[in-house]
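Tokens for chain A. Residues wanted.
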């Protein structure tokens, strides 16, 4: 947590200071940026020698990776949090557009918010770049037809 102390540090930074150690936040960032090897080395040593530090890091890791193994539950909660609709059918083995076996993501209409289907990231980006509309897709089809006739 940071706070504003009202007086500059010895290097003249007028910014925030960390509450727990009162060090200047700007100076701390600069030290970490200038000596990344020292920071990593300190973390390795602290993890090896300090049981309290090790437990804090393990607890943070458990919290960060708590969704592993609970994939369906975690994905549903994440979808709701991100404002995505609930899927109306299960995820198929293949992308519904290119029919290749790739990771599928939930595709939804940005105007109505309704679930459209399961597509790979490449197909989802392609639809988006063509304006998320049938008109944009048809323009691309006509372009490709003209190009192949030449």
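Reply:
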């Amino acid at each position: 947590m940071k706070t504003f102390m009202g007086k500059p540090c010895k290097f003249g930074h007028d910014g925030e200071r960390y509450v727990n150690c009162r060090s200047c936040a700007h100076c701390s960032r600069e030290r970490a940026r200038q000596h990344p090897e020292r920071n990593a080395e300190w973390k390795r040593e602290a993890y090896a020698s300090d049981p309290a530090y090790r437990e804090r890091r393990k607890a943070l890791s458990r919290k960060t990776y708590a969704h592993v193994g609970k994939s369906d539950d975690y994905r549903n909660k994440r979808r709701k949090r991100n404002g995505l609709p609930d899927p109306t059918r299960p995820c198929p083995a293949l992308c519904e557009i290119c029919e290749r076996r790739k990771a599928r993501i939930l595709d939804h209409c940005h105007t109505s918010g309704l679930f459209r289907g399961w597509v790979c990231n490449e197909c989802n980006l392609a639809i988006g770049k063509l304006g998320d509309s049938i008109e944009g897709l048809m323009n691309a089809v006509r372009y490709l037809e003209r190009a192949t006739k030449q």
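The helical segments are 25-34, 36-49, 51-64, 71-81, 121-129, 134-149. The chain has two domains: 2-64, 71-149.
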